[in-house]
Amino acid sequence: MSHAPARPPISATVITYNEADRIDDCLASLAFCDEILVVDSGSTDDTRARAEAAGARVLVRPFDGFRSQKQFAVEQASHDWILSLDADERVSPELRASIESMRAGGFDGHAGYRCARLSQYFGRFLRHGNAYPDRKLRLFDRRRGGWRGEREIHESASVDGAVATLDGDLLHLPFRSFEHQLAKGRQYSQMMAEHAHARGKRATLGKLVLAPAWRFWRGYLLRGGFRDGWPGLIYAYVTAYTARQKTIRLWLLQQQARQDADHRE
After folding, report:
1. What pTM was computed for the model?
2. 259 within 8 A of 231, measured Cβ to Cβ
3. I need a labelling partner for 20 at 20 to 30 A (CA). Which of 6, 45, 77, 248 fits?
4. What CATH number was assigned to the domain covering residues 10-172?
5. How many CA atoms lie within 13 A of 152 on its CB side?
C-alpha cells in the first residue's frame, strides 16, 4: 500500500526595518506557512507591533548586513523548509498554489526552488528588460543551504542539490517614491563599492564609461525594456546611474586608501 509523502512544514522569514506601511500585505501573503518569523533591525515605527498582531514571531537583532540578517532568521526558524521574503515582497496567488503543490509532493527530492520576481515601478509591473524575470531562490531546505558567502549586498541564497522553478511570480514593490529609489541607490552603491574594494577590485575608466552604458542598452533595447513605456525607460536609466555611482565610490575608496598609506610612511 502506497502512502502519500509527508507534507513538510514551512517557516517564512522576513527581515524588517521601518516597514509599518508594507508589512501587513507581506505577512498576509504568507498565511499558508506554518510559522512566520520576523527579524527586525530596531524599527522606530510600529513594524514589530503590526507583525506580532499578524501572528508572527518577532526577534530584534542589530543590522550588520542583509545576508547576515537573513541567515540569522533562517537559523532561528522552527522548521527546515524556509521561504525567505523581504518586506516589500508578496507571494502571488499563483506562486502560493505552486508552492502548495510542491509541498504536497514532499518537495520531490529538491533542495530548493526559484521563482520569477515581478517588480512594480510607478504603478506598472515591469515585464521586460533587466527587471524581469529576475529569478530568485527563496524556498529551500536549510539543511542543504541558505544565505551563504561573504556578500552582504545583492545577497543570494544557494543550496547543495537540485533546484526547480516554481510557477507564478513573487511580487516586488521596491520603492515608495522616486526619492526612495535614489536613496536606496546611494546606500547600495556604497555597500557594493566597499565589498568590491575589500576583495581587491579596482575602478577603471572602462568600468565608469562602458559598464553603465552597456547595462542601459542591454536592458532597454536587447531585453525589451522599451516595451514597458516610460517606467521602463526611467528604470533602465536610473539603474545604470547606480552602477556608475558604484564605480565612482570605489575610486574614492582607492584614493582614500592611497592617502592613508602615504601618511603612514
Report:
1. 0.88
2. no
3. 77
4. 3.90.550.10
5. 18
